[in-house]
């Protein structure tokens, strides 16, 4: 009996194993597994910065909080621990580069905007080293306007007019130069250069008229190549002072580009096709149009009109043997005819209906020749993670399917249709906006109105799915009478994390799609995805098993690593490497190289401008070794993709804010709380004879009791030999330098050695090769040593090597190099005054950012409390809250109250 039962069981087991092996050998299963394996081994990250304001003025601080998530889990990242944030000017040059420590996927910091900067369209860019593998198009990259009234003498307002002479585009720029009181600069000479794509195409001179105006006319020699540029205008004022203004050229013509995008990819003959339209002007901004569709016989088959930012859709059913054109009418009444994409005789259409709030409905249509027993595959994935797979048979021309939205994450879902040969034949992007995926925040105790300088106490509550939510939040409070909100363009954690971070290219008014949760907004968003199909992930690489390389590793901590080799390049295993630093107190640590000669000092914590000394010795304590430090190349600055966000007249656009901020900065300057640069008259500087390049002398370069030059060291074997008997009052004992006055007092305090700005031990002197030294500044007198405090009591030797900047690892003696890596930037705290009956304050309070707090953490009950005081200015105050919890759920809320 038992044998009879065992035989069928073995038979079923064999069948199961056969099925599993067959499934494992299925090419499509292999394809999906390959994708999942790549995702697991090559995770990606997204960054959002919450800024305190939508725009700024020179003199302001830009306060921000960074939120970083792992795209695979949609949770705060635990992969990277370091975030880079850059402030980039209109010349695509980095003006400030921050390196910030991250914990639990969050960090915060700020930029100061000194008066050495000019007004313009700046960018704030944020990324991790790991994000560089996906490319800069997926960095956080926000264009912000920074005006300048406080430190500005000349304002330039520009208008452009466009015309066409035959096939040549002509541009006329009218520039008006005024002072901050809007008074013109008449009869001033202006020289200018016109640059398009960084190439000079015109230059000249002009004189301002009685209204301070000049007219500059130029032509665009290559309209297809030159799309934008700038006018560099230099105005000479009556006091002969020259002021340079850089004026953006956002467009070189009034041409409008119209494109058509069939849903799924192609127009298929005899099948109803949805086609999206997108019209943009030369500056990259959407332009609304209307038009008609006609076939090759001239018969009108449909009409269309754009609904939002030049985007819209229409339906067409291409007939055999027919071609189609679109006659587009623009706002000025002009028309232009465009050919629709060529109709394919055979193919598939993948159509998505995303109107139902509960589900995504899909329809697969195919030409009759493609029907049959072949099995199709439909895949839905988000950021490389597959959420849905179905394998319908292609026996019918129309196949339908639906997916409950609750089974999909919020964000961009990529639907791909594969044919029987596992080749992708159609693709469609759709957006899932699950409101229940977000943290719900409420605030208690907020009154409808307060007095000026009144105290505001707020209790923040956070919930997810009606349960307590513990999260990290940031809060920005501004007065809308001073800082007018720009809700469709201000940075928003939802639009960044759910939309822009997965789309390459420029997205106009991204926050428009999150201000309302209605049918019209959903349709606008669907049309955006129909017309902007670039995304983070491509199936082509998976199919070819050629996923892109990932040369940049996740940065877990600050580290100094490299390789120890012989002069012939042979790795030196089991050799000693020491790391020294005297910044913030002397420390030293040692390690041994591995079998490949590699060494690594990790888990370091140091601030920017910290200098290190790296020393290597062989296993036999020989110093003739080569130290090669690992260096990660810096991130290049790409062209600004946010062309539509560039403002030609920044100061004019921010005039109201600049007037208010100017009063605020003047008040701070009077109180000594804001530094202001003073421009001196031009003078000729005569180089001091003993000035030392790259000197770290705290008294100033060359300010010493004696300077030993490189020429004086040419015939010395050791520095002890060079210094002995050359400098009065200095003697050498066992390779250590002393001043005789120190020895006579019985203290016998050795001279302190400062090597390329870093303190090293006094007995280190003869480790330095004389031929590698540029200079030695000898500090003996109390006037020169006092600045070094007690460490300089025995005198100081400031030694500068011939490669003594130490920026990327400078060698000055065998087995030793100096190194000055980028460290963490200090995180400052936002100043918020406190007023009460005993301390009401008498100074005017004109803050533009009323309150900023990047580190509000809710407790186990989902609550957090914070408070602040209003300013002296009345208006509607706006409280913006953003945040994230440990599961990656996002929060965004805006509250208002009145100050009277």
Secondary structure layout plus pairing:
Blueprint: H1 2-24, H2 27-41, E1 45-51, E2 56-57, E3 61-70, E4 75-76, E5 82-88, E6 94-101, E7 106-112, E8 120-127, E9 140-147, E10 155-165, E11 168-178, E12 189-196, E13 199-207, E14 213-220, E15 229-236, E16 242-249, E17 256-262, E18 267-268, E19 273-281, E20 290-295, E21 300-305, E22 311-316, E23 324-329, E24 335-339, E25 343-344, E26 348-353, E27 359-366, E28 377-382, E29 385-390, E30 398-404, E31 411-418, E32 424-432, E33 440-444, E34 449-450, E35 455-464, E36 467-468, E37 471-479, H3 493-498, H4 512-515, H5 519-531, H6 539-543, E38 558-565, E39 576-581, E40 587-592, E41 598-604, E42 612-617, E43 626-629, H7 650-653, H8 655-670, E44 706-709, H9 719-723, E45 730-733, E46 736-739, H10 740-744, E47 752-755, E48 758-760, E49 773-779, H11 782-785, E50 796-801, E51 810-813, E52 816-819, E53 849-857, E54 863-869, E55 875-885, E56 890-899
Parallel strand pairs: 2-9, 18-25, 34-56, 47-50
Antiparallel strand pairs: 1-3, 3-4, 3-7, 5-6, 5-8, 8-9, 10-11, 11-14, 12-13, 12-15, 15-16, 17-19, 19-22, 20-21, 20-23, 23-24, 26-27, 27-30, 28-29, 28-31, 31-32, 33-35, 35-36, 35-54, 37-53, 37-55, 38-41, 38-43, 39-40, 39-42, 42-52, 44-49, 45-46, 47-48, 49-50, 51-52, 55-56
């Amino acid at each position: 009996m038992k044998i009879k039962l065992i035989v069928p069981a073995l038979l079923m087991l064999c069948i199961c194993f056969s099925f599993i092996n067959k499934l494992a050998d299925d090419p499509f299963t292999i394809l999906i597994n390959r994708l999942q394996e790549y995702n697991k081994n090559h995770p990606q990250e997204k960054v959002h910065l919450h800024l305190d304001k939508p725009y700024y003025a020179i003199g302001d601080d830009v306060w921000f909080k960074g939120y970083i998530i792992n795209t695979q889990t949609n949770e705060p990242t635990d992969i990277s621990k370091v975030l880079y944030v850059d402030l980039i000017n209109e010349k695509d040059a980095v003006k400030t580069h921050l390196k910030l420590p991250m914990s639990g996927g969050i960090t915060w910091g700020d930029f100061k905007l000194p008066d050495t900067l000019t007004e313009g369209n700046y960018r704030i860019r944020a990324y991790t080293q790991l994000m560089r593998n996906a490319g800069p198009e997926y960095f956080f990259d926000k264009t912000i306007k920074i005006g300048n009234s406080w430190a500005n003498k000349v304002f330039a307002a520009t208008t452009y007019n466009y015309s066409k002479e035959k096939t040549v585009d002509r541009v006329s720029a009218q520039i008006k130069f005024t002072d901050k009181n809007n008074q013109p600069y008449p009869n001033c000479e202006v020289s200018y250069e016109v640059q398009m794509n960084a190439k000079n195409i015109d230059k000249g001179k002009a004189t301002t008229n009685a209204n301070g105006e000049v007219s500059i006319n130029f032509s665009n020699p290559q309209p297809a190549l030159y799309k934008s540029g700038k006018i560099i205008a230099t105005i000479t004022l009556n006091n002969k002072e020259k002021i340079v203004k850089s004026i953006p050229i956002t467009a070189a013509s009034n041409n409008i580009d119209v494109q058509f995008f069939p849903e799924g990819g192609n127009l298929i003959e005899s099948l109803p096709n949805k086609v999206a339209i997108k019209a943009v002007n030369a500056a990259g901004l959407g332009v609304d149009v209307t038009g008609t569709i006609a076939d090759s016989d001239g018969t009108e088959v449909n009409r269309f009109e754009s609904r939002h930012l030049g985007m819209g859709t229409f339906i067409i059913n291409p007939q055999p043997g027919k071609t189609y054109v679109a006659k587009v009418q623009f706002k000025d009444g002009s028309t232009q005819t465009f050919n629709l994409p060529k109709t394919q005789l055979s193919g598939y259409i993948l159509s998505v209906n995303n109107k139902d709030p509960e589900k995504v409905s899909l329809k697969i249509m195919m030409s009759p020749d493609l029907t049959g027993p072949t099995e199709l595959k439909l895949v839905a994935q988000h950021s490389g993670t597959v959420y849905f797979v179905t394998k319908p048979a292609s026996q019918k021309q129309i196949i339908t399917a639906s997916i409950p939205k609750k089974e999909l994450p919020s964000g961009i879902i990529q639907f791909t249709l594969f044919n029987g040969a596992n080749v992708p034949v159609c693709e469609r992007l759709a957006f899932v906006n699950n409101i229940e995926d977000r943290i719900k925040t409420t605030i208690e105790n907020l009154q409808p109105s307060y007095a000026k300088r009144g105290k505001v106490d707020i209790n923040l509550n956070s919930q997810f799915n009606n349960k307590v939510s513990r999260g990290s939040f940031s809060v920005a409070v501004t007065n809308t009478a001073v800082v007018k909100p720009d809700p469709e363009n201000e940075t928003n954690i939802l639009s960044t994390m759910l939309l822009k971070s997965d789309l390459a290219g420029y997205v106009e008014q991204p926050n428009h799609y999150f201000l309302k949760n209605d049918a019209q907004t959903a349709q606008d968003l669907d049309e955006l995805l129909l017309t902007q199909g670039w995304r983070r992930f491509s199936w082509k690489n998976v199919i070819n098993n050629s996923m892109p390389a990932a040369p940049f590793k996740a940065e877990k901590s600050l580290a100094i690593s490299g390789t120890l080799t012989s002069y012939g390049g042979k790795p030196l295993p089991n050799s000693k490497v020491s790391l020294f630093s005297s910044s913030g107190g002397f420390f030293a640590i040692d390690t041994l190289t591995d079998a490949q000669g590699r060494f690594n000092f990790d888990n370091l914590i140091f601030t920017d401008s910290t200098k290190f000394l790296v020393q290597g010795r062989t296993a036999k304590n020989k110093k003739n070794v080569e130290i090669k430090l690992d260096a990660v190349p810096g991130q290049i600055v790409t062209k600004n993709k946010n062309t539509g966000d560039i403002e030609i007249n920044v100061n004019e656009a921010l005039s109201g804010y600049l007037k208010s901020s100017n009063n605020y900065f003047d008040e701070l300057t009077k109180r000594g709380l804001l530094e202001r640069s003073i421009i001196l008259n031009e003078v000729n500087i005569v180089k001091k004879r003993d000035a030392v390049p790259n000197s770290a002398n705290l008294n100033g370069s060359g300010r010493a009791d004696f300077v030993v030059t490189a020429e004086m060291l040419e015939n010395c074997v050791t520095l002890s030999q060079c210094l002995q008997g050359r400098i009065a009052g200095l003697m050498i004992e066992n390779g250590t330098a002393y001043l005789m006055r120190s020895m006579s007092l019985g203290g016998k305090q050795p001279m302190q050695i400062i090597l390329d700005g870093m303190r090293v031990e006094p007995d280190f002197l003869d480790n330095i090769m004389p031929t590698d030294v540029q200079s030695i500044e000898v500090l003996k007198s109390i006037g020169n040593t006092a600045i070094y405090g007690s460490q300089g009591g025995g005198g100081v030797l400031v030694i500068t090597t011939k490669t003594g900047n130490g920026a990327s690892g400078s060698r000055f003696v065998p087995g030793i190099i100096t190194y000055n890596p980028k460290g963490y930037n200090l995180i400052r705290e936002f100043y918020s005054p406190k007023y009460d009956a005993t301390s009401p304050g008498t100074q005017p309070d004109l803050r533009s950012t009323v309150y900023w707090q990047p580190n509000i953490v809710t407790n186990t009950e989902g609550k957090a409390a914070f408070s602040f005081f209003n300013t002296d200015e009345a208006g509607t105050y706006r409280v913006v809250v953003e945040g994230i919890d440990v599961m990656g759920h996002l929060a965004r809320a805006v509250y208002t109250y009145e100050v009277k």
